[in-house]
Amino acid sequence: MTFKLSRNQFFLFLFIAQTGTVFLSFQTPLVSATGPDAWLVFSGVGIFHYILLLLYERNYEYFKPGPFVSWMYKGYWLLIIVSFISYIDYTLAVWAFPETPQIIVISIMVGISLYANLSRAETVINLSVILLPLIPIFYIILFLAWPDFVWTNLFPIAKIDGSDLLKGIIASQFTFIGIELFLFFRKHVDSKQKVSGIPLFIYQMLWMFFFLSSVLFSLLFFSLEELKMIPEPIMYILKSQAVALVERLDLFFIFLWMMWSVITISLFAFTTIYVHQLHAKGHRKRNTIIFHILLVIFPLFLRSKEHVDMIQNSLVYFHLFFVIVVPTVVILMNRRKKK
Amino acid sequence: MKRSVAILLVCSLLLGGCWDEKQYKDVTVVSLVGIEGQLGDIKAQFAFPIFEDGSISYSTSLGSGTTLREARNDANHRTKEGLDIASLQVVLISEETAKSDLYNYLDMLYRDPRNRLGAHMAIVQGELAPYFKPSADVGNDISSHYTELIDTAIKYTFIPDINLQKTCSTLFAKDLSLSLPYIKIDKESGIPEIAGTALFSEKKFTGKTLDKKESIIFNLLRTKQGRYTRFSYMWKSGGKVSPLTVEVNSIHKDWDISNNKINTFYKLKFSVEEFPHDSLDEKKTVKEVEDFLSKELTKDFTKVIHKLQDAKSDAVGFGRPVRAFHPALWEKGDWTDTFSELDINVEVKAEITRNGILN
Fold first, then answer.
1. Domain boundaries defined on chain B
2. Is B174 on the interface with A (CB under 8 A)?
């Protein structure tokens, strides 16, 4: 599979893959663990994210996974996609489609990914562009809640102990999911366009602004005890806003989020198939279809919230392994080989 | 071909809603809900429009059950279509019911994603039945009557602007007590009217209320003004007496919190709406009026604070900065107890900035 990415395409790809599904729900576990310190903890975690990006940028040329490591990553992404689909399906069943059969919702979402992935690589890569005008609208709607924000909710700070801090850092890791795609697609970026330095810093700032603002909105809008009860705080903020002519903003937003998430799934599916094709010979179409059939079947086994939570909670630990441990080993081995 | 498939797939997203379609002809849209009784034996009234012979009238259905959901199911047995509360406008709760943990009655409304969170909330004096069928003529649409009654009261700063979402949010806050509009039926006219503000302490109605004037002051203490905020006094100075009505243009607060005391300073800017004595072109008179207002308002503000302390209801929200920035005071014990015993001083400074079109 040969394709070239512009710098903007690359960063947009990364941004949508990282934000798609998780931005709806990661705030509650983070705030539950760290309380008013959540925004400080996340700011610290953001620095770690930037350090990771800098390390990836410095060493991406040495990241050449062999067939075994590639299979591990494919399994990991399959787990991510299945977990995302299960979560999306559950959330849609709660908010928008309680009566629609699960298989219909899942098939439609996976069907879009299948179509995009059977097309040229550029089709999937550019899918994210659809979301560009919608993201500012989403923010404008969220800012309607401004008069209800309680600024004292951000204090007192520095009240958590080490165990809560660790829980908070782990909860924040959901926002990192997808960062490893940097290592796989960085080499496809047009060599004439600079990625390191200012462009990478701007990407980090956008990532930070996006997630940190959602943590701040959740903290400012809800009291701590209330937030523990609300698994999707951003949705609830939108639900509580009413503007002239539109009573239920959350219903508009749930469809925007669904679109966002379907694109995220398509990007992860694209990455999985791309990595598979690095070591497999031909049969791309057949492999793509088989992979998507698996994506329809597996989420059907995760019907309850308990299952969805279980797989999501375990995802963080897999993520730490595939974002830190595996790249470190692969890069160090390849560096040594080169020497 | 591929494009057609793509369009079909995108369009099929819309079809996903077919299973979840709800048509108005299949449901009865409830606009007003009343809750009374106690946990385990809840009685709920539902008011909804009915269409007969081309005109709209309002009907009610009563249900009882262990939970609000069960009470609604029970009420469903007496209506032609299922009761749908997704477009709820007003929730009325009897004062006796509100004296136990209020959230127990609201969870169903708050938890269901289909429900509207912008519905108005109010506590009613006595039993619910007369509020659904008042003896006086309040028009056909009883829910609109309450919606407009509450909206107008909010506009005139008589009651706090609070909906279902804010109610539940406040119930879970440890640094703020809930306050809800209080409605009663006027004995002479039989019309339901705003009587003031119901004060809560730790999720329960305290049984104590603020009257209309106290409610206005309470809202100013929170610096939450409606469109109009007016006060009337009989001005007295050096043997001169004159009626005086002023409107608050702006309010600025400054709280000084220490470990055992809160000093509050409020600066209010007024325009004079009514003052037959006139002479507001004379600095001396303006000063006299300002001093008079400062003194009277300081007295009234202090009275409201004492009433809140007596009810153990920090509905103003002194607890918010205390929790955030004064840990020693916050950690003294349960905040409502600490608040009720705290030394809170109030000072109000009035400033006349407008005279109207007369001097």
1. 23-210, 223-359
2. yes
Chain A hits for B117, CB-CB cut-off 8 Å, are 239-240
Interface predicted TM-score of the whole assembly (ipTM), two decimals: 0.89
Digit-coded pLDDT (tens) for B160-195 = 999 999 999 999 999 999 999 999 999 999 999 999
Question: Does residue B345 surpass a pLDDT of 60?
Answer: yes
Query: Does A122 contact chain B (CB < 8 Å)?
Result: no
Domains of chain A: 7-333 (1.20.1740.10)
Domain B223-359 has CATH 3.30.300.210: yes
Asked if A156 reaches chain B (Cβ–Cβ under 8 Å), the answer is yes
Q: How close is the nearest chain B Cα to the Cα of A93, in Å? A: 10
The alpha carbon of residue B197 and the mean position of all alpha carbons in its chain are separated, in whole angstroms, by: 7
Of the candidates B6, B20, B327, the beta carbon closest to that of A100 is on B20
CA torsion, ordered A236, B99, B144, B56, to nearest 10 deg: 100
**CA A310 to CA A8: how far, in whole Å?**
35
Chain segment B315-340, per-residue pLDDT in tens:
999 999 999 999 999 999 999 999 99
Residue found under tokens 């310190």 = A37
Helix runs in B33-160, H state only:
68-76, 95-98, 103-111, 129-132, 142-155
Indicate the helix (H) or strand (E) that contains A135. helix A134-142
Range B149-161 average pLDDT:
96
Question: Of A144, A112, A140, A139, whose CA–CA distance to A127 is shortest?
Answer: A112
Q: How far apart are CA B321 and CA A155, in angstroms?
A: 9
